[in-house]
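Q: Hi! First time doing this. I have a protein sequence and I read that you can turn it into a structure. Is that right? Here it is:
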Amino acid sequence: MPSKKGTEMSAYAPRRARETRARNAATIHEPNQGRQAATIPMSDDDQARALFFEALEFLDASHFRLAEARLRQALQLSPANPAVLTNLSAALMQQGKRADARDFAAKAVAADAGNVEALLVLADCQAHAGELNAALADYDRVIALEPRIAEAHNNRGLMLHRLARPAEALESCDRAIALSPNLSDAHVNRGNALHALSRDDEALAAYDHALVLSPNRVEAHLGRGNVLCEEGRHEEAAMAYDLALALKPAFAAAWLGCGNLMSKTKRHGEALAAYDKALALDPHLAEAELGRGNVLRERKHHDEALRAYDAALKLKPDLAEAFLGRGDALYDLKRYGEALVAFDLAIALKSDLSNAWLGRGDVLRLTGRGPDAVAAYRRALALGGNAVLITYYLAALGAEPSPGVSPQPYIASLFDMYADTFDRDLIDNLNYQSPRLLAQIIARTVPADARLDILDIGCGTGLMGEGLRALKRTLTGVDLSPNMLEEARRRGVYDRLIESDIVAFLDTQTDQFDLIVSTDVFVYIGDLAKVFAGVRRALRIGGLFCFSVEAIDEGDFVLRPTLRYAHSQPYLSRLAGQSGFVVVTIEPHAVRREAQTSIAGYNIVMRCSLRDEQ
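A: Yes, that's right. Below is the predicted 3D structure, encoded as structure tokens:
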């Protein structure tokens, strides 16, 4: 999920307007000190001078409202004076009245194109209005006029960072630091640029340098938190965010960082609370709405997630990650046409967003547009997407050699995500019947009074275990997904539940079980030779091996575009003989329904033969 970096703009323009007021004053001169006051009425110019210098004293004392009042009075008497216009814009900016500040700064620049102080105010107002290119152009004008203003280089770097031009941003920050080595703002912005360039060790060093110069620099703590969060150093990230919030409890960007951290660590309730806090402090923080959408999608609250993504896009129409989130949510809802539109919009805004290309490939694969899907996957791969997973997807389309087994991270994440809705989706939506049918076959094969040591490999949520309750002496379940195992544990059927790869577990077992079962597991394993060997070793003589597969007529096995393997009956029979099994029965059945089509499969029972018969 992407986060808002702690960027720091140097508050330079108003200070410079005060420090160089003699030049700004132009035709306004300080009144003579110590003279007896004249008895004649003051002219408009004299009144303007008096008001102007009184306003400067208020600016120096940070009484910006009083300074504004005096300068507005002076402006009525001297409407086109650049000094009055410039200092009035500075006073307004310090009060957050940036619309008015911008107007007066623009008038000052119109009167004097070389007015550096007014250009700095104008650039600041444009930056806060989100007009980043205009602000960048004005910082360039300032630097052309006075190239040794460190704060101008720093703020230029900040604009470049926000425009996603991190290499140029880094160059500007380095120039600012060369001119003013102790400018902590520049070290913060340098860290942000380095982070965007994935030079995270250097980014952390830059933030640390900023904190040496200014220990209470909240943006430096925030930047450290963002880097540490992305690196998976979650405890350190939490400490960095806590330090930022201890210094500035109303720091919306730090609450956003906390939300991102909670989301990464699956603490969804806390993540939503943090995002809500960020939005309460800054209702325009689009990234917080994006974070909410991502959490709600993970919780399968898809309609709420879509509303959050839409809210993010209303605040920031060019937020590519929000279109990506919309695409993912619509994909989950099987609204593939809308999902494709969302992924394409994300790509149009950010062509190097690898996950958008990946989502595009997924939609095209499932809607039968294989060549286009291959092109999208290859683009995702070139952009640094997960090579193992994408190569697997390409293999499902025949564009790469088929691996013998689905990648473990794919299986674990898939079932962790769907653990809490797995049973409902399979039984209600896909008419999944394998556990019930296989349990009936086992009941016909095993004496009714048998009490067996049973192993359920790839047990998932324990659907198969329910059908084995009457036959068990002991029942052990093995699965890769901790969330699936937690669901199985709630059934209260299993005596042991073990988180493990099934082949790795089987390799540790010898003559331990009377019955080994597996339903809807071998659709994620193509080459079953190691599984059969492990099962044969783990079974006692005469023990049963009962499982289900999806069926094909030719070849040994194939990885389908659904990312599921199918196996042929001759392959399974041949493997049984090679591994020391006798086939008891192979019964065709419909494994599930997908896209209104029944998927053909087999329920199979094999018996472990005597060792001297092999």
